[in-house]
């Protein structure tokens, strides 16, 4: 095709890049104020200035995005696709400025226009399309893929409402309010009204022949519309894409019903179509089995696969080469329906035979498991799938036995080289039942982890211990059936751009100065931080290091004063636990430890109290709206805070804050301010954890159990620089058995904990009855082993105090910790996926 149309000179002179000197930047911002926003300088507020600045930055991103996508199309490399129901992006403006290397220029330009960059950055609402670690990990991986110049796209849903806003009632209860993040226009997305796919639900599936083919008709059809979010790499022109789908009704509304005076009926179909992407499910580590959630999962995987296939088809290659051009990563089991969906397309639409199709599927997908907690393992009732996705239910049954012969296979059939579980393990019926994709029961349920596992090329966990647990517990039978080499580990990582340079600019600058390296170098090779080690002996450096931590504590105190109106004592150790509220994460252990400390302080003479290390404890985190015990823990924290913060005997020595509405942006203020952070899950329950890495990268020490990535952090920084406590994973099962069959009264087993519980019951923090259900989880059964770990937890807190008293040595520990965090860059993790899983290569994009 001829290019350009029209006058080539006109095109060439118009097609230049954007100037990024301060003068051009102010012009571009003002241009957007005048045109895109249709506003005037005299009535421009901070929000307007933010929007104009964002639109101006966006222009730069769009040009890089265009160039990157053109290169990808021209070079036609193998691409990776990251399917995640959650992307917890946080704010974009600051990150975009830093990745583009334009922060200083914009700061100046904005200042010239009479605004401060700090103030306008605060105007942006978080994009909070995720619950916690799983969604934030996806966001870090997008940043790293672009920074490492890897051709990767994310696919997710454009929820109208992200994770709920958390409010705390006067009684201390969590209340939920909607998160209207799209209320003002979102400058970071590009609607692609021309990228549209039909997605079907319900209807009938009729088998056509003996080869597994079928026809799926009827039911409801909805439209999936693409919205693209630009993902800029750090110090590179590469700008990847996050494509989010929005659901819309296929037929606006039914004009006939409208004319017949049935207005509600007329909009009904449009309402039910739009409902699909209306809200993020706020559950973390639990499944609800709701039809709308299943529709979300199918809607998103069907649209994403159609889009990926369309891109592949533009290459004009035989369909059998699909796995050479596309690797699809399943972020947990949420997108597992992509496996039967690709089978459906290949068989029913592309008319491939079953074996060829199954070969393509099992070379395309990769599955990451993010939890071994039983309540988080997805299962869908067979009748529900049959109703919503009748064709997919047929395919799942065909995979089990009729065609993929995963489980069973008749002796007469020798057409496939694959063996079945039955052939490999003859006469082992229990094994067949354990491994089936269908769990027997009322109703029968589809086990999504099993489907994800057998439908994928490789499977991985997210930290060494977790990957071992996956191999030896939930997927043990599959390791025995398919061989260990399919089951790997990729330890999680975090992006040092957001989680050091952006959230802790002073520390970032000190590191660059000390290493005598431009930050663009060490932020992309984080192992360079090791160069800080010799400086533990440099007094001036240590002093500067400590001063920055102190200023970050003051910044947090300032934030608490602005938002809650409370004054925080910054001359105390800052102790932080921020994460989703969950019994396995044991915020309850922490708050009971705080109460223990309070009671101990109360019993001391004022003179003795003065010798204790002063401590300020911060909690933040949301509880799933239906998670009663987690909500009760919040209530207890809030009410303990109310009492002890007002106690004149102790308040100089111990205070406690629950910061409402935890978010990525709040984490960016909390993490750089912490001296110690708590990662205290029952051993074997936290798959990895990623905030542990963020705290350590910012020079905060870690207090934790021997669990998840804590173990690998300790391996890197040395056990003398972390505070470990509690029982180890192999002991957990036995201890639970003891609790059930040989219970020992708590008074006998752990008197200190019994005393704390009794004080809560007795009403020290308000009506004790309110907390009985929470206290009973410890008194009876104690599934998460608080009573087994309490004494060693208290001892570990004591060791933290002792270490903190030696402030010089503490600073050294802090420096050593940061220095050894290189391994935990998400760049390392994404490169492992690229090389050992997806087999994709860098595609440099040059100006
Ligand atoms: C979470 N899993 C794990 O609980 C965390 O330990 C881990 O750091 C993150 O994933 C990221 O890998 C989940 O949220 C889920 F959904 F699997 F339960």
From TrEMBL:
GO terms for molecular function: glycogen phosphorylase activity; pyridoxal phosphate binding. It catalyses: [(1->4)-alpha-D-glucosyl](n) + phosphate = [(1->4)-alpha-D-glucosyl](n-1) + alpha-D-glucose 1-phosphate. The modification N6-(pyridoxal phosphate)lysine is found at residue 694. GO terms for biological process: glycogen catabolic process. The keyword Transferase applies. Coiled coil: none annotated. It holds the Pfam family Phosphorylase. Its EC number is 2.4.1.1. Keywords: Allosteric enzyme, Carbohydrate metabolism, Cytoplasm, Glycosyltransferase, Pyridoxal phosphate, Transferase. InterPro entries: Glycg_phsphrylas, Glyco_trans_35, Pyridoxal_P_attach_site. It is found in: Cytoplasm. PANTHER family: GLYCOGEN PHOSPHORYLASE (PTHR11468), GLYCOGEN PHOSPHORYLASE, LIVER FORM (PTHR11468:SF3). Allosteric enzyme that catalyzes the rate-limiting step in glycogen catabolism, the phosphorolytic cleavage of glycogen to produce glucose-1-phosphate, and plays a central role in maintaining cellular and organismal glucose homeostasis. Belongs to the glycogen phosphorylase family. This is Alpha-1,4 glucan phosphorylase. The lineage of its organism: Eukaryota, Fungi, Dikarya, Basidiomycota, Agaricomycotina.
């Amino acid at each position: 095709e001829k290019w350009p149309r029209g006058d080539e000179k006109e095109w060439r002179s118009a097609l230049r890049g954007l100037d990024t000197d301060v003068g051009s930047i102010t012009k571009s911002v003002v241009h957007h104020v005048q045109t895109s926003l249709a506003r005037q300088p005299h009535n421009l507020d901070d929000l307007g200035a933010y929007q104009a600045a964002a639109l101006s930055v966006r222009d730069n991103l769009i040009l890089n995005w265009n160039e990157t996508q053109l290169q990808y199309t021209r070079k036609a490399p193998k691409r990776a696709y990251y399917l995640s129901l959650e992307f917890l992006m946080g704010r974009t403006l600051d990150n975009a400025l830093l990745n583009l290397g334009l922060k200083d220029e914009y700061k100046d330009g904005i200042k010239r226009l009479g605004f401060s960059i700090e103030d306008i950055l605060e105007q942006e609402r978080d994009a909070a399309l995720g619950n916690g670690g799983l969604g934030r990990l996806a966001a870090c991986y997008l940043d790293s893929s672009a920074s490492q110049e890897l051709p990767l796209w994310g696919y997710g849903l454009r929820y109208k409402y992200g994770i709920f806003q958390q409010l705390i009632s006067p009684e201390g209860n969590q209340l939920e309010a909607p998160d209207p993040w799209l209320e003002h226009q979102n400058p970071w997305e590009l609607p692609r009204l021309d990228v549209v796919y039909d997605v079907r639900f319900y209807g009938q599936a009729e088998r056509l022949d003996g080869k597994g083919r079928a026809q799926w008709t009827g039911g409801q059809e909805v439209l999936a519309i693409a919205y693209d979010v630009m993902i800029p790499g750090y110090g590179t022109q590469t700008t990847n894409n996050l494509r989010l789908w929005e659901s819309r009704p296929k037929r606006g509304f039914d004009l006939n019903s409208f004319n017949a005076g049935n207005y509600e009926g007329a909009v009904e179909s449009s309402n039910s179509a739009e409902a699909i992407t209306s809200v993020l499910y706020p559950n973390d580590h639990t499944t609800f089995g709701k039809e709308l959630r299943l529709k979300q999962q199918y809607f998103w995987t069907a649209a994403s696969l159609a889009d990926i296939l369309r891109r592949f088809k533009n290459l004009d290659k035989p369909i059998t080469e699909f796995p050479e051009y596309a690797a699809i990563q399943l972020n947990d089991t949420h997108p597992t329906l992509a496996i039967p969906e690709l089978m459906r397309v290949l068989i029913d639409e592309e008319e491939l035979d079953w074996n060829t199709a199954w070969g393509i599927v099992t070379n395309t997908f990769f599955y990451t498991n993010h939890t071994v907690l039983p309540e988080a393992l997805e299962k869908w009732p067979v009748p529900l799938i049959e109703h919503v996705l009748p064709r997919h239910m047929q395919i799942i049954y065909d995979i089990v036995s009729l065609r993929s012969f995963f489980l069973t296979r008749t002796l007469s059939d020798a057409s496939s080289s694959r063996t079945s579980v039955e052939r490999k393990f003859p006469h082992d019926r229990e094994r067949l039942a354990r491994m089936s994709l269908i769990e027997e029961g009322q109703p029968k349920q589809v086990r999504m982890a099993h489907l994800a596992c057998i439908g994928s090329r490789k499977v991985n966990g997210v930290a060494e211990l977790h990957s071992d647990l996956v191999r030896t517990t939930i997927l043990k039978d599959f390791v025995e059936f398919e061989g260990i080499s399919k089951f790997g580990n990729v330890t999680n990582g975090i992006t040092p751009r957001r989680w050091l340079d952006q959230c802790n600019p002073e520390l970032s600058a000190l590191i660059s100065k000390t290493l005598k390296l431009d930050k663009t170098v060490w932020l992309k090779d984080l192992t360079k931080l090791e160069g800080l080690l010799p400086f533990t002996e440099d007094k001036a450096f240590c002093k500067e290091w400590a001063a920055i931590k102190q200023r970050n504590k003051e910044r947090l105190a300032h934030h608490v004063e602005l938002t809650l109106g409370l004054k925080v004592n910054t001359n105390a150790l800052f102790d932080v636990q921020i994460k989703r509220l969950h019994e396995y994460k044991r915020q309850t252990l922490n708050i009971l430890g705080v109460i223990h400390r309070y009671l101990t302080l109360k019993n001391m003479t004022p003179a003795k109290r003065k010798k204790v290390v002063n401590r300020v404890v911060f909690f933040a985190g949301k509880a799933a709206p239906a998670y009663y015990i987690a909500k009760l823990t919040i209530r207890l924290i809030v009410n303990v805070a109310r009492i002890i913060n007002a106690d004149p005997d102790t308040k100089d020595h111990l205070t406690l804050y629950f910061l409402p509405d935890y978010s990525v942006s709040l984490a960016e203020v909390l993490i750089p301010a912490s001296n110690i952070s708590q990662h205290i899950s029952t051993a074997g329950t936290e798959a990895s954890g990623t905030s542990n890495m963020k705290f350590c990268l910012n020079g905060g020490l870690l207090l934790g159990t021997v669990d998840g990535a804590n173990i690998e952090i300790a391996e890197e920084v040395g056990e003398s620089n972390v505070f470990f406590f509690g029982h180890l994973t192999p002991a957990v099962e036995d201890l639970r058995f003891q609790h059930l069959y040989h219970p020992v009264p708590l008074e006998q087993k752990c008197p200190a904990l019994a005393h704390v519980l009794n004080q809560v019951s007795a009403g020290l923090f308000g009506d004790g009855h309110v907390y009985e259900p929470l206290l009973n989880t410890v008194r009876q059964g104690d599934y998460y082993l608080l009573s087994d770990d309490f004494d060693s937890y208290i001892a570990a807190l004591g060791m933290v105090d002792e270490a903190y008293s030696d402030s010089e040595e503490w600073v050294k520990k802090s420096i050593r910790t940061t220095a050894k965090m290189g391994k935990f860059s998400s760049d390392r993790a994404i490169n492992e996926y690229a090389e050992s899983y997806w087999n994709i290569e860098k595609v440099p994009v040059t100006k």
